[in-house]
Amino acid sequence: MNTPHDRCRACAWCFSVLFLVGLCACGTKQRVPSAKSSGVAATGPGHAPRPIGTAVRIDDPSLAPEFNNLAIDGTTYFAGWPTEAGLRALAARGVKTVITLKTPDQVLAARGYDSRKIAAELGLTLVVIPVAPDTYSVADIDAFAAAFDHADGPVLIHCGASATVGGVWSGYLVAKRGLSTTDALTRGRAAGLKDGPMTDATERVFGEIEASSKPVVVPSAPVQ
């Protein structure tokens, strides 16, 4: 026979169980949307995705002459050949990573300095990804994304005249950020892409990106 004391003990036990269940529910972490689900490319550990806008041309007379075209979108600089003075100026403005789409030998021939030596002196991370219209591929975009998405601080992306930069940027925006090809080309042109071989190569790579994203359909075996 249950006594009032027994009933009180049972109520206390039920209350304790409910309290513990509530604690577990409160302690459960909410699921954070992934970069894929939110349409934003993921970056390295501890890195917030860089906002993507439309680059604007820099006409600052103290800086622009040191580059063969210069534009900026947030903390990303797009340029043609930087002079040594230009590289030093951007380092002073906080640039930490330089992604060059030309080889150090090409920079040396065009501007007369060893980009590897200057980068080491300034404490810059120099990433070399040589790209040309006839060799441009999805693999170049993958290499670019690996460097760009994990870079700390402002980034300089340069080639010779900024057309290749704009083409690679367009491909990156489609392949890694999910932009339409039309939108990506608009932003790529703002970064330096011009009509010609690099635009043709970029449109070719758009096709490769689209083809690689389509599921492979395996024909079913005929019914015997």
General description of the model:
By secondary structure, the chain is of the alpha/beta class. It has a single domain, classed as Protein-Tyrosine Phosphatase, Chain A. It is 47% helix and 10% strand. The protein is built from nine helices and six strands. Strands 1-2-3-6-4-5 form a six-stranded mixed beta sheet, with helices on both faces. β2 (70-73) and β3 (76-79) form a beta hairpin. α6 packs across α7. Residues 10-44 have low confidence and may be disordered.
Which helices and strands, and how do they pair?
Elements: H1 4-27, H2 35-38, E1 56-57, E2 70-73, E3 76-79, H3 84-92, E4 97-100, H4 104-111, H5 115-122, E5 125-128, H6 138-148, E6 155-158, H7 163-175, H8 181-191, H9 197-213
Parallel strand pairs: 3-6, 4-5, 4-6
Antiparallel strand pairs: 1-2, 2-3
Helix pairs in contact: 3-5, 6-7, 7-8, 7-9
Domain count, please report it. 1
User: Which whole number gives the mean pLDDT?
Assistant: 83
Total E-strand runs: 6
Low-confidence stretches: 10-44
- Give the SSE order as H and E letters: HHEEEHEHHEHEHHH
